[in-house]
Every structure is written in structure tokens, then in C-alpha cells.
Amino acid sequence: MDAQLADVEAGKRFYGELFGWTFEGAYGSSVWARLAGEPVASLAPKLDGRMPTVWTVSFATPDAQGLGRRIVAAGGQLVMAPFPVGDLGVAALAADPEGAVFGLWQAGGHHGFGRRHRPGSFVWAQLYTRDTAGANVFYGGLFHDALFGEGARPDFGRSEVTEVFPAEMPPHVLAHFRVADLDDALGAVQRLGGRVQAPPFEPSYGRVAVVTDNQGASFALLQR
């Protein structure tokens, strides 16, 4: 999972205080975010000011090229074809048939999360879609074993974008970070210059609020 930001130093200050992350150089101008010494995310500078300020969740795959072909065959698209990231692995950026963007990661020296499901780390990704049946077919066909196979631990769900959402909200994948106390975390977000997009609500997987950081990147906070 990585954030594309206009100001990585400002991102380090925001997330360092919010989640207790520390940082070290990763690849190029990007930095690893670590919690208790384990990698939990990365922050990267936007290469083009026209790019959105966003968090992107990546699915692990043993074959980014092959999965990219399957995505296109299933009606999705490759936003960025697979490319090497030094000796760390191979990355790609894809979109589902409705345009929701997600990443792919074929591990080399970097295998992904060192810590998750704990406060201050990734806990859930939620797809917001206007076509739930189509999403079931698309993601189920690509990632069936990971999402539904024996021993799979749920990390991913989907919700329908209904009339309660703004009409202009596009389908998207929303990254969730676990927090020990949601109200305290919301106070910290606002104190650090972020804002609350959606106040706390209670889906089946916990108590959630949607926020933006001090540069406009959206993410969710989840208390279980």
C-alpha cells in the first residue's frame, strides 16, 4: 500500500504523529513507513502534479504480467503496465471495468506488509462500486483463492454506491487503517490538518470513519 503525495515530508509528519510510524529511504524518492520496525506502507512523491493525491492498495501476485493480461481480458485495463522497482519487485497499476484503481505487486526483495490488522497498520480494503454483481465476477475470477479459498483471511469487501453517496463519487478502493480508539484518532486527524469526510458509521466489519490527510488523500479509520 502506498500514498502518492505532493509533499512527502509533510506526509511523514502527518502519518508519523497519527500512527506512530517511522520512516527510511526506500526506492528513488519514496520512503518506507515502519511500525515497530516492520514495513506497513510507503509514501512516494507524485511524478506529475496532475496526478491524484491517493492511497493505492496493491494485490500480491506471483506473475504481474500474466495477471495484467487476465485483467484486460476480464474487461479491466492496465493504467501502468508491469515495471521493475529495482530488486524490490515488479509493480503495475490497474483498473476494474468501472474504473476503480488498484495496484499489483510481484515480490522480489520486498514482500509487502510486515505488520497488518494491528493499530497503526492496514486492516481492510473496501471497494465502492455501482455494479456489485459485476464486481463479484471480476474480482472473484481474478482472486478467488485469495478472497474465498480455504484459510483465506478477509481483508477485502465491497459496498454498493447507492443514492446516499454523492452522484460524482467514482467507484474506488478505500484503504482502512486500524486504530485503537476511533474518536481519539479523528481528533488527531483534524489537529494535524486533515478533515473528516464521513463521520463514524458501523458496517459489518467494525466502526469506521472516512478522512483525508493534510494533502487530500482519502483513507478510512477502523476500530474493531
Automatic annotation (TrEMBL):
Keyword Thylakoid among UniProt keywords: no
InterPro entries attached to this UniProt entry: Anthracycline_SecMetBiosynth, Glyas_Bleomycin-R_OHBP_Dase, Glyas_Fos-R_dOase_dom, VOC_core
Protein name: Hydrolase
Organism classification: Bacteria, Bacillati, Actinomycetota, Actinomycetes, Kitasatosporales
Molecular function (Gene Ontology), one example: hydrolase activity
UniProt keywords, alphabetically: Hydrolase
Species whose genome carries this gene: Streptomyces yokosukanensis
Pfam family, one: Glyoxalase
Domain VOC residues, every copy: 1-107
